[in-house]
Amino acid sequence: MSARHGADGTETTHRVLVLGAGYAGMSAAVQLGARVGRRRDVQVTLVNAQELFTERLRLHMTATGQEVAGLSIPELLEGTGARFVRGWVTAVDADARTVRIDDDRVLHYDTLVYGLGGVADLSAVPGAEEYAHTLNSVEDAEVLADRLARLGSGTVVIGGSGLTGVESAAEIAERYPRLNVVLLGRREPGAAMTPKAGAYLRAALDRLGVVVRSGVEVVKVLPDAVELAGGERVPADAVLWTSGTRVSPLAAAAGLTVDERGRVVTDAALRSVSHPQVYAVGDAAAIRQGYGVMHGTCQGGMPTGVHAAVSIVRALKGKQPRPFRFGYYHTPVSLGRGDAVVQFTRPDDSPRRMHLTGRVAARYKEAVSAAPWPTYGRMKKVPASGAVWPRGGRFTRNGAVR
Ligand SMILES: Cc1cc2nc3c(=O)[nH]c(=O)nc-3n(C[C@H](O)[C@H](O)[C@H](O)COP(=O)(O)OP(=O)(O)OC[C@H]3O[C@@H](n4cnc5c(N)ncnc54)[C@H](O)[C@@H]3O)c2cc1C
């Protein structure tokens, strides 16, 4: 990759377009802006639906009426040379190298960074689209907050016993002790942790009064209940759906190679295997490591964004990108505001013996949730500061870029 040349041989601008200002896309845009955004032959543009950064890690707090900071994306980009375009991406044409915004604007790119994230999958269960709340966006979380505040008493059912379901159940039970909170899921909450850490998590839910029913399958969401496989109905005044993830259909529609969940399949350097001028990052990408395909997290998403940016800068210099390597190191789970469990993990995300609980863990979780924004600020000044993350050691040592 190098700067484009016009018909008369003069150098023209290389246009890098970053789609999605989530944890991964912001990392890419800030890195690129800080490293090359002020160059005349490179233009970096970040596109996102909202002007305020969505702190997904805090959406369960928003959903329970707690104030979270309003973090302005254009303000953060100030001084980097990267520009911000607010809008909804409606189509990507990977052959023409264009992106359509709000169906009325077209942006051209030479290199694309695709980071549109993922949301809870409501399509798998009939009635979920119509009757269940989600934490898919700040707006959705605010709608749930409004509903919970007006309920007074009654039952809130949470579908999905993964970490988002657990964090939401604990938060709702703590903020609204008069509500019955029922957590439904196939697996026991905390099943991926060590027995001791998992037991702590379940005891905390118990203390908060959350009724946990694992080993169940929700087959239908109704206006006032959820139906389980076998026909049992669990009455519900409000339902929050946290199970499964779905990504934007835009990548598949653009003809990019995607996996069975619609995520962009990447090579070792995070480029689309079908369209190497497209990098895919964060939850929207299917990134294979030595231990398997990465699952969506902020801890892994931010490094993917930084790596894509560094690779693009290398390519602009005519150098080959390096393979991406990442190993997990923790699973922090909040259990209300004063309690949490932090399970430390091996690079393949299997649990180590060590874990934290209680107030120390709650402070750790808060530090993790608060970290991204100052990290972007530091990256603006010292881009290399963003390029520090656990590479996964022997778990990810599998050779060069394919
Ligand atoms: C309650 C909760 C708690 C969590 N806790 C943790 C945790 O403790 N640790 C952890 O590692 N992970 C956690 N996660 C998961 C983490 O939030 C995600 O893995 C992370 O947000 C993925 O980052 P991303 O940049 O890929 O996507 P996102 O953060 O989802 O960002 C995608 C961006 O793209 C924008 N977008 C999407 N489609 C379009 C479009 N068509 N046009 C324009 N813009 C668009 C969205 O508005 C958004 O700004 C949690 C998630 C939730 C919901």
Automatic annotation (TrEMBL):
Transmembrane segments: none annotated. Residues 15-293 form the FAD/NAD(P)-binding domain. Keywords: FAD, Flavoprotein, Oxidoreductase. InterPro entries: FAD/NAD-bd_sf, FAD/NAD-binding_dom, NADH-Q_oxidoreductase. The keyword Secreted does not apply. Its cofactor is FAD. Belongs to the NADH dehydrogenase family. This is FAD-dependent oxidoreductase. It comes from Streptomyces flavotricini.
